[in-house]
């Protein structure tokens, strides 16, 4: 089905916490809200690509659990990253074999960071898999991805909730942040210190974009999950789903949007 309303959804990065985006999408779909364009960074870009390709949210969760994305990381013989992402690209090709933005059923924009230029680079046409790899290429952990002459890393470095590709072309913009930071944290070691600092920085560039969203969704409690804790994927999916249904029930404006959006046209 094709919506009469132009609804854009921007999905943040956040490691495995990005599975909660799939729960959010399922809940929105159930009440009749379907995006006409999706944008995403890192985990949000991956979830968005799978969804835009036509996979149902539950299917994507099953794929994530069964394949365990992190198994495909390989050590890098490089001073620029601990792991390389080539094998991750092979995994993407299993589920996105066309490797083409134009073949997606819903338009998608993927945010990456040009680490040499210090600028955001958006992709929405041409090959799909390399931009997905670049968007989730955590600096220091992975070797940067080369696309043309661009040296690219995780889009969350500069834009962890890319609403800009939706701004001005959508009637409504829904921003979704899965990277919520607990209000307090016990800093037990250097890992905790670095992780909390990185999330604080990324959330700063998320919250600076809230004013561009008609609706901003942030499922609570996700901060207790590790960014690589793939075993918690079903819980994260449920957390996104339950939160969104509750928010819709309590927010008449969203319900009205859902009612309007149920008036759909066949593709």
Automatic annotation (TrEMBL):
CDD domains, sorted: Pat_PNPLA6_PNPLA7_NTE1_like (cd07205)
Active site: 42, 154
UniProtKB keywords: Hydrolase, Lipid degradation, Lipid metabolism
InterPro entries with a match to the protein in the record: Acyl_Trfase/lysoPLipase, NTE, PNPLA_dom
Chain location of the short sequence motif GXGXXG per the record: 13-18
Domain of life: Bacteria
Motif window: DGA/G: 154-156
Motif (GXSXG) on chain: 40-44
Coiled coil region boundaries: none
Limits of the PNPLA domain: 9-167
Name the UniProt record assigns to this protein: Patatin-like phospholipase family protein
């Amino acid at each position: 089905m094709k919506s009469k309303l132009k609804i854009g959804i921007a999905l943040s990065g956040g490691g495995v916490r990005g599975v909660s985006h799939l729960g959010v999408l399922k809940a929105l779909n159930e009440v009749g809200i379907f995006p006409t364009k999706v944008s995403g960074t890192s985990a949000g870009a991956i979830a968005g690509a799978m969804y835009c390709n036509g996979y149902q949210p539950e299917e994507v969760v099953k794929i994530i659990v069964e394949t365990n994305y992190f198994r495909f990381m390989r050590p890098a013989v490089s001073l620029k990253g601990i792991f390389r992402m080539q094998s991750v690209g092979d995994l993407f090709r299993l589920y996105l074999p066309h490797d083409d933005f134009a073949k997606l059923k819903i338009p998608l924009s993927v945010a990456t960071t040009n680490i040499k230029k210090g600028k955001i680079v958006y992709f929405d046409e041409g090959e799909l898999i390399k931009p997905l790899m670049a968007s989730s290429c955590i600096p220091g952990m992975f070797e940067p991805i080369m696309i043309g002459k661009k040296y690219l890393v995780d889009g969350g470095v500069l834009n962890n909730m890319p609403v800009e590709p939706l701004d001005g072309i959508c009637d409504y913009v829904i921003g979704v942040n899965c990277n919520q930071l607990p209000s307090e944290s016990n800093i037990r070691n250097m890992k905790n210190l670095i992780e909390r600092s990185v999330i604080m920085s990324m959330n700063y560039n998320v919250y600076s974009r809230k004013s561009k969203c008609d609706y901003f969704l942030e499922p609570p409690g996700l901060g207790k999950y590790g960014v690589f804790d793939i075993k918690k994927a079903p819980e994260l999916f449920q957390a996104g789903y339950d939160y969104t249904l509750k928010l819709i029930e309590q927010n008449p404006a969203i319900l009205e949007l859902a009612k309007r959006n149920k008036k759909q046209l066949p593709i």
